[in-house]
């Protein structure tokens, strides 16, 4: 199933993330290499949220990502939510019409 991980990030997130960016990207790549993370990135203008698209059977796999994410551990993420996304259009859509 598709799930969205939605981060609400702190002010000055772009500047503050620099010391943790490489570790965060390595973690994301680990999940992407396993096929669990399909897309991820920050929203622009303003950079106040980031969204990551996961394709996993169990959303607890996303909890593992969050618990290891240096952005979360170092307080750059104010809050987050995990939402099931009922995708219906596109090559990897989970709900077939």
Q: Would you state the CATH class?
A: Alpha Beta
In DSSP terms (H or I, runs of 4 or more residues), the helix count works out at 4
Do you know the CATH topology? Alpha-Beta Plaits
How many strands in all? Answer: 4
Fourth-tier CATH superfamily name: Dimeric alpha+beta barrel
| Strand arrangement across the biggest beta sheet | 2-3-1-4
Spatial extent as radius of gyration: 14 Å
What is the end-to-end distance?
15 Å
Structure description:
The chain is α+β, with helices and mostly antiparallel strands and 97 residues long. The chain has helices at 13-16, 21-33, 60-68, 70-73, and strands spanning 2-9, 37-42, 49-55, 77-85. The protein has a 4-stranded antiparallel sheet with strand order 2-3-1-4. The longest helix has 13 residues, at 21-33. It is globular and about 45 Å long. It starts with a strand and ends in a 12-residue tail after the last strand. The model has no long low-confidence stretch (mean pLDDT 96).
Features:
Alpha-Beta Plaits, single chain, about 100 residues, four-stranded antiparallel beta sheet, alpha+beta, about 30% helix, 4 helices
Strand and helix layout:
Blueprint: E1 2-9, H1 13-16, H2 21-33, E2 37-42, E3 49-55, H3 60-68, H4 70-73, E4 77-85
Antiparallel strand pairs: 1-3, 1-4, 2-3
Question: In short, what is this structure?
Answer:
By secondary structure, the chain is α+β, with helices and mostly antiparallel strands. The chain is built from four helices and four strands, in the order βααββααβ. It has a four-stranded antiparallel sheet with strand order 2-3-1-4.
